[in-house]
Design a protein that fits this description.
disordered N terminus, alpha+beta, 4-stranded antiparallel beta sheet, 6-stranded mixed beta sheet, Ribosomal Protein S5, domain 2
Length: about 350
């Protein structure tokens, strides 16, 4: 393998060789402990330069991408006291590029303010048994932060994927779950499709064989929430209501019932209003009275994002486009976009 040396490295090597030759001559002609010690130090420095050059040649690069969410389709408690949510993935993503190299002093350079990316990189390297590697991370994302769009989970998963990609290694679903839930309460988007997920410990309660890939008019307010600070004391008392919604979702899965999926999402959003008010829901409710194409709505149960649900077909896309234009004219303090469940 070709050793990578900078111009400065080459000058250092030349200097060390000259000094080593002079010291070697002194040792040969006069002897003494001092020139021998100096020769050892000089040769050690030469070895360090060459070894660092070798480390620089151990370079890897990987790219990872992962999608975010439009809040959750449903979120609450089951009767056993277990927390759960049903994922609502969307085709807005976070992307990460990882530049990895062997290093005597390993470190992770990451974008300012994104410490979860650093932690994800550390855990990914550990899971691969890769010691003595430094990582430089670049990040791009079209997910808004602090809205309940799963931006941090998307960053974490994209980082892990990028590092595994750099080493041509396949990353399992369980590794993604373990790393994400070690770092934070995760939205479960690392699991393909739609699932009922315990965001605290990563347990999967149900994998949906069928789920509608809704067209969604997503509304993203200017204001933000610290999504990890929101408390839901007392929400477990509504566990029977949430479990009823969860059971209906499972029936919707079996029957391929698009409207029942939308109705369940709406019921969960309405229950959540008691704990985290969202004024935008009232706007969608009002519009539903006139616009029968709106099947329902979903909400960020720990954030302020919300979305109006439309049929998962071309007609639904057209209806969503018209509504997005109309809604954009009404709302001055929010972004209105069209997304879909992938």
């Amino acid at each position: 393998m070709k050793i990578s040396l900078t111009t400065q490295d080459k000058f250092n090597i030349l200097g060390v060789l000259i000094i080593s030759l002079l010291l070697g001559w002194v040792v040969y002609s006069k002897g003494g402990i001092e020139p021998i010690a100096a020769l050892i130090v000089s040769l050690g420095y030469l070895f360090t330069i060459l070894f660092n050059g070798f480390l620089k040649s151990q370079k890897f690069e990987g790219i990872g991408e992962h999608y975010g969410t439009c809040g959750e389709l449903v979120q609450g408690f089951l009767s056993e006291g277990k927390q759960f949510h049903v994922t609502c993935p969307i085709n807005k993503t976070s992307s990460v590029k990882a530049h990895i190299r062997k290093d005597f002093t390993p470190k992770i350079n990451y974008p300012d303010g994104f410490s979860k990316i650093k932690k994800a990189a550390e855990l990914a390297l550990k899971s691969l048994d890769k010691d003595w590697y430094s990582v430089d991370i670049e990040r791009w994302s079209d997910l808004d932060i602090g809205k309940g769009m799963g931006s941090s989970t998307a960053d974490i998963i994209a980082t892990v994927k990028a590092i595994y990609s750099a080493f041509n290694a396949e990353v399992s679903e369980q590794i993604l779950i373990d790393i994400a839930t070690t770092i934070e309460s995760s939205d479960g988007s690392m699991v393909d499709g739609m699932v009922a997920f315990n965001h605290k410990n990563g347990e999967i309660y149900h994998r949906f064989n069928y789920y509608p890939k809704f067209n969604i008019v997503i509304i993203i307010p200017e204001s933000t929430y610290n999504t990890e600070s929101i408390k839901f004391a007392g929400k477990e008392l509504d566990s029977k209501k949430f479990e009823k919604i969860f059971n209906k979702l499972q029936k919707a899965d079996i029957k391929n019932d698009i409207k029942l999926f939308a109705k369940c999402a709406m019921k969960s959003a309405d229950l959540n209003l008691e704990y985290l008010p969202n004024k935008l829901i009232y706007q969608i409710r009002k519009d539903m009275k006139k616009n029968k194409k709106i099947l329902g709505y979903c909400v960020g149960h720990t954030g302020n994002v919300c979305g109006a649900l439309f049929m998962p077909n071309d007609a639904g896309r057209l209806s969503a486009t018209k509504y997005a234009i109309e809604l954009g004219q009404k709302l001055s303090n929010a972004k209105v976009e069209i997304v879909r469940i992938p």
